[in-house]
């Protein structure tokens, strides 16, 4: 069954997380101290879902004069790389937060092993020879208890010896594991003798070949929090069933009253978006996208390349707030924050993406005019620029029709329109090719209408943009649609990639830009007038990615929902 998008209400500045922190900071068990952490695994790139956790953990720490630590959960040597460390640090910093000095779960490997031995001595952990499939099968189900391992009653001495030999590398991968001894009939499946260590004869990017055993997330996570002095471990809801285990380990180790407290919140989910690392890797590996920074990807690198500003992402995360129940937000809501930011800050420029030539027959031969154009009507301090104007222009093919329908108000034979920041022009003739396609439009201009205003007060119904043919520079534009056609890809149990949109990107070459676009810094977003917001590629000069269009689709969704209610 598909999920229903949840409505979005503005964050009031308070939520159950902040209320908890306020109480704990005033008279709680931590002496007024607040310390959070963001613990990504360095096996890939951060995506928009991580942005909510980053904003929450770093944000609340700052609000309560606390500290948020960036800790890398590097417990899976086969999938982790040093390159991901720097990429994650860069993404956190780009999002607007100071990552500080990094910590690593591997910093605590020795301490974790000592604590594991402590549990063995206390009769609370044992070495199991069963393979992963058998352990999983014997764990039971929600209505049936699990089956005790035949190795569960090994003596403390035997377990200590086998664990030491596991550390020494005497056994092959998967030959043995260390499990906590809790309760195989526990109502919570996570408490049914969970695995603490597994053998991995693999090279670790930080510790090299020192370790032959690696802790599981459940074993490393809470203890790493305790070592670092974390007061509040803020996790997404999929970890709620793991909280009793988190607390059990800390209690059995006697780590004191000033121990971390795990609290869960709803993860960020968006329509038309997949955030599974496995599926994102499949998109990259199978060539459905051009890499992790493809502007269609939900990775922070992809969003950055597409022109999403970090300020808009943070504002969006603040707006949706922190909830206790998972839901899905419309991607149009996120886009509305992006559009609002760029409307206020982006410079205006003119670009023609599907050009057709327009000749002004009565324009003085050899004369070039410079038309003043406003850089941003929302920001007076942005000033104006000079745009060259001549007797030959490029306009959008879609702004002209030979036989226009009744409500088409743009250029047509005999019709007068306004050229933005230019003059009023009237179409006098049209040249077509053998196939009937328009190849050239002829017009006359009214020299008394500089700036687009007629001295006699006559009105025109349309304004179109243009680029001087003599001064135009060529470039490429990438136009994007949804990567997934289904608003809830995979929600019905199908493969999410089954709804991949084969038309998610359109490449327009031969576009015509006004000259000032050559000076646009890499990564900067500008508004192509009448077309949308476009980001200058970070590496390919004069290649622009459409960030969002000008139309506020979120407002349209709200209107429809209001009408339905």
E-strand count:
25
* Share of β-strand residues: 15-25%
Overall 3D geometry? elongated
Q: Strand pairing plus helix content: what structural class?
A: alpha/beta
What would you report as the Rg, rounded to the nearest angstrom?
Answer: 31 Å
Query: What topology, given as strand order, has the largest sheet?
Result: 10-23-24-25-21-22-11
Instruction: Tell me the helix content.
Output: 25-40%
- Mind summarizing the main beta sheet? 7 strands, mixed
Report the uncertain regions.
1-12
For the terminal residues, how far apart are their CA atoms?
A: 23 Å
What's the number of helices? 13
What integer is the average pLDDT? 94
Structural overview:
There is one protein chain. The protein is an alpha/beta fold and 565 residues long. Helices cover 27% and strands 22% of the residues. The chain has 13 helices and 25 strands. It has helices at 16-27, 48-63, 82-95, 109-121, 132-137, 156-168, 217-228, 243-252, 277-285, 300-306, 310-320, 331-345, 553-564, and strands spanning 35-38, 67-72, 103-104, 125-128, 177-180, 195-199, 213-215, 232-236, 261-265, 347-349, 351-352, 355-360, 369-374, 384-389, 392-396, 416-419, 424-432, 438-445, 463-464, 467-468, 473-480, 505-513, 525-528, 532-536, 543-548. A seven-stranded mixed beta sheet has the order 10-23-24-25-21-22-11, with helices on one face. The longest helix has 16 residues, at 48-63. The radius of gyration is 31 Å and the shape is elongated. Mean pLDDT is 94; it is low at 1-12.
């Amino acid at each position: 069954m598909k999920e229903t998008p949840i409505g979005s209400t503005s964050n009031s500045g308070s939520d159950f997380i902040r209320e908890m922190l306020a109480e704990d900071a005033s008279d709680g068990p931590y002496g007024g101290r607040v310390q959070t952490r963001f613990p990504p695994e360095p096996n890939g790139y951060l995506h928009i879902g991580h942005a909510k956790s980053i904003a929450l953990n770093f944000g609340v720490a700052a609000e309560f004069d606390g500290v948020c630590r960036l800790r890398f959960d590097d417990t899976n040597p086969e999938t982790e790389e040093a390159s991901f460390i720097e990429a994650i640090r860069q993404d956190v910093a780009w999002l607007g937060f100071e990552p500080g000095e990094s910590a690593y779960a591997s910093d605590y490997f020795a301490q974790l092993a000592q604590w594991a031995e402590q549990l063995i001595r206390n009769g609370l952990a044992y070495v199991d020879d069963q393979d992963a499939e058998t352990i999983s099968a014997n764990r039971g189900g929600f209505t049936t208890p699990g089956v005790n391992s035949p190795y569960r009653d090994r003596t403390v001495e035997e377990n200590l010896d086998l664990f030491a030999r596991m550390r020494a590398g005497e056994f092959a991968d998967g030959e043995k594991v260390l499990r906590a001894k809790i309760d195989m009939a526990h109502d919570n499946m996570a408490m049914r003798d969970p695995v603490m260590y597994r053998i991995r004869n693999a090279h670790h990017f930080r510790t090299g070949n020192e370790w032959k055993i690696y802790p599981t997330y459940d074993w490393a996570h809470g203890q790493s929090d305790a070592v670092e002095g974390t007061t509040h471990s803020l996790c997404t809801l999929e970890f709620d069933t793991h909280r009793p285990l988190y607390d059990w380990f800390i209690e059995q180790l006697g780590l004191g009253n000033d121990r971390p407290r795990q609290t869960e919140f709803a993860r960020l989910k968006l329509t038309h978006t997949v955030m599974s690392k496995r599926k994102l890797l499949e998109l990259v590996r199978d060539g459905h996208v051009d890499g992790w920074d493809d502007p269609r990807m939900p990775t922070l690198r992809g969003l950055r390349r597409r022109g999403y500003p970090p300020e808009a992402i943070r504002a969006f995360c603040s707006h949706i707030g922190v909830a206790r129940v998972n839901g899905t937000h419309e991607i149009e809501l996120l886009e509305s924050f992006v559009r609002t930011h760029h409307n206020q800050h982006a410079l205006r420029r003119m670009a023609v993406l599907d050009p057709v030539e327009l000749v002004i027959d009565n324009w003085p031969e050899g004369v070039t005019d410079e038309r003043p154009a406003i850089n941003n009507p929302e920001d007076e301090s942005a000033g104006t620029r000079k745009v060259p104007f001549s007797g030959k222009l490029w306009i959008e093919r879609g702004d002209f029709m030979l036989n226009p329908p009744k409500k088409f108000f743009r250029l047509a034979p005999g019709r007068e329109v306004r050229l933005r920041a230019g003059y009023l022009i009237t179409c006098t003739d049209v040249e077509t090719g053998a196939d009937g396609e328009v190849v050239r439009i002829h017009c006359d201009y009214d020299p008394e209408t500089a700036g687009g205003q007629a001295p006699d007060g006559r009105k025109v119904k349309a304004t179109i943009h243009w680029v001087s043919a003599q001064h135009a520079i060529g470039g490429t534009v990438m136009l994007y649609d949804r990567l997934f056609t289904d608003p809830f890809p995979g929600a019905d149990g199908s493969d999410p990639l089954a709804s991949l949109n084969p038309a998610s990107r359109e490449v327009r070459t031969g576009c015509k830009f006004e000259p000032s676009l050559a000076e646009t810094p890499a990564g900067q977003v500008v508004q192509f007038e009448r077309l949308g917001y476009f980001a200058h590629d970070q590496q390919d000069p004069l290649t622009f990615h459409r960030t969002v269009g000008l139309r506020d689709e979120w407002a349209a969704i709200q209107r429809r929902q209001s009408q339905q209610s």
